[in-house]
Amino acid sequence: MIGRMALIRIAALAELPPESLLQRTAGGTPVALCHHAGKIHAFNGLCPHLNGPLGHGNLVDGRIVCPWHGWEFDVETGALDFNPRVRLQRYGVEVRDGAVFVDVPCEPAPHQ
After folding, report:
1. Least confidently predicted of 1-5, 59-63, 88-92
2. What is the DSSP track for 29-83?
3. Assigned CATH class of 5-105
4. The model's pTM
5. Quick check: helix, strand or coil at residue 100?
């Protein structure tokens, strides 16, 4: 069961130059980070096709391209190009003090 969201430091902004893509894990969740058109975006880092690591793919013309089978997702919407009903889960992003933080799902605290 997924619980509340947690703001987690995931990278230094210097690790994500303009028009780049990066794969990280935050709170046990794979995250694809991209820096496109001056904005940082964060998505679930697994391709919905066969769980390819999206952050190891390419960022081309505002599209995240999965490294395994070439599925392309719009950076602004997370929508798959050939079927916009398929979308990547987007996470909130905050940049402060040279670091990138994301809101990712975390496991709920156990009941005591």
Report:
1. 1-5
2. EEEEEEEETTEEEEEESB-TTT--BGGGSEEETTEEE-TTT--EEETTT-EETTE
3. mainly beta
4. 0.87
5. strand
Whether 66 and 49 have beta carbons less than 8 Å apart is answered as yes
100, two tokens: 């990138």
- At residue 27 the predicted structure's pLDDT band, cuts being 50, 70 and 90, is confident
H or E segment and range at residue 109: none
Q: How many CB atoms lie within 10 A of CB 59?
A: 21
Quick check: 83 and 5 in contact, CB under 8 A?
A: no
Question: Residue ranges of the domains in the chain?
Answer: 5-105
- Name the burial class of residue 78, with classes exposed (0-12), middle (13-18) and buried (19+) by CB atoms within 10 angstroms of its CB: middle
Q: How confident is residue 69, by pLDDT bands cut at 50, 70 and 90?
A: very high
Under DSSP, the state recorded for 13 is: G
pLDDT for the residue numbered 110? 45
